[in-house]
Amino acid sequence: MLDKPVQIVKVTASTLSFGDIEIHPAYRQVFKAGNEIHLNYGEYSMPYCLAKSPGRVFTRDQLYASAWDTEQHFGSNTVENTICRLRNKLEPEPRHLQYIKTVIGTGYKLVIPAQTPAK
Asked: Where would I find the beta strands (DSSP E) of 16-82?
C-alpha cells in the first residue's frame, strides 16, 4: 500500500524552502519567488524557527526567544506585530493565509500546503 506523499520543508545544506520561499541561514537571507525580501533581525529569526519544524506549534514566548534570545515581557505584542509584518512580506495573499497560521490560545505554526501533482 502506497502512502500519499507528504509536502515538507525542503532542506539542503544551505537552504530551507517552502512554496516559493527560500531561507538561506548562512547569509540570513530570505527570497520569495527569487527576489530577496529584506527582513529585520526578528523578522528573519521567526520564519527560520518555524521552517525548521513545520507543523510544530511555537508559543509566542518561544518565538520571541528564538528572535532575541531572551524572555518576552508580559503584555508585549512584539511577536504578533512581527508575524503581521512577515505575513505581509511572505504570504502570497496576506488576506488568505497560506503559510503562517495562528493556533488560537497557543501561538503559531508553519503550514506547507500540499502541491497538486503535475499532469
From this structure: 16-18, 21-24, 29-32, 35-37, 58-59
- The values of phi and psi at residue 53, to 5°, are -140, 70
Between the alpha carbon of residue 106 and those of residues 22, 57, 111, the distances in Å are 26, 8, 15
For the chain, the domain total comes to 1
- Report the share of the chain in percent with pLDDT over 90: 63
Is pTM, for the whole model, over 0.90? Answer: no
What CATH number has the domain bearing residue 77?
Answer: 1.10.10.10
Give domain status of residue 119, yes or no: no
What digits encode the pLDDT tens for the residues 27-72?
A: 999 999 999 999 999 899 999 999 999 999 999 999 999 988 887 6
